[in-house]
Amino acid sequence: MFGNNIDRDKFLEYAYTKDIMKITGPPCDWLKTYNLKSWGFRRYDKTERAYASFKKGDIFVFHSMKQEYLPADPGVKTGIIGIGILSCKKIIDNEPYDGAFTPEGYRPLKIYFSDVWFFGDTDKIINESIAEKKKKGIGYIMKDIYNLTKNIISFSEMRENDCVISTQGAVSKISPEKSKRLLKLIAGRLH
């Protein structure tokens, strides 16, 4: 957990009244979210339609998929690693290169979070840019990825609780029934 304006119980009470959406991305991008409290989408018809519907107060769960920019590592698990509340959105068409793994202007459809909870061992992650982490080497980034993806909600846990999310697509809505079951799993991970 970090940078939150709302306590756990108030958040959960609020979350049970909202639709929940899932965002999918590789663990390196979630490190950027940890650092910046933001996420970006590429311009595709489906993501642009979804983006147009986003409103302040929307809730997103963070699905970490397999590595995309770094070598595959069996120690990095996939699943839900966090949750956040949308504060605002902004299109940044000419975003300069930030020194991370994606090229300039790669994800112009930006969303920003007022509150973010990551379930991993975030006390061990140094809050610095991916560009700074890259200078220290892939091993340094991997250590942060391991810490960020600890305590995930795994797909086997989701199956056991009948709340498996779709792994397809950058963003999708989770059904209200699944959302409620998923929030029970999330509640146990919020500190």
User: Distance between the terminal alpha carbons, to the nearest Å?
Assistant: 7 Å
Q: How many structural domains?
A: 1
Dominant shape: globular
CATH top level is: Alpha Beta
Strand content: 15-25%
Structural class: alpha+beta
Please state the second-level CATH architecture. Answer: Roll
Query: What proportion of the residues is helical, as a percent range?
Result: 25-40%
Helix and strand element order: HEHEHEEEHHEHEH
Tally of alpha and pi helices: 7
Describe the structure.
The chain is α+β, with helices and mostly antiparallel strands and 191 residues long. The protein has a single domain (8-187), classed as ph1033 like fold. It has seven helices and seven strands. It has helices spanning 8-15, 27-36, 45-53, 130-136, 138-148, 155-160, 176-187, and strands at 20-25, 38-41, 59-64, 79-91, 109-118, 153-154, 171-174. Strands 1, 2, 3, 4, 5, 6 and 7 form a seven-stranded mixed β-sheet that branches. The longest helix is centred in the C-terminal third of the chain and has 12 residues, at 176-187. It is globular. It starts with 7 loop residues before the first helix and ends with a helix.
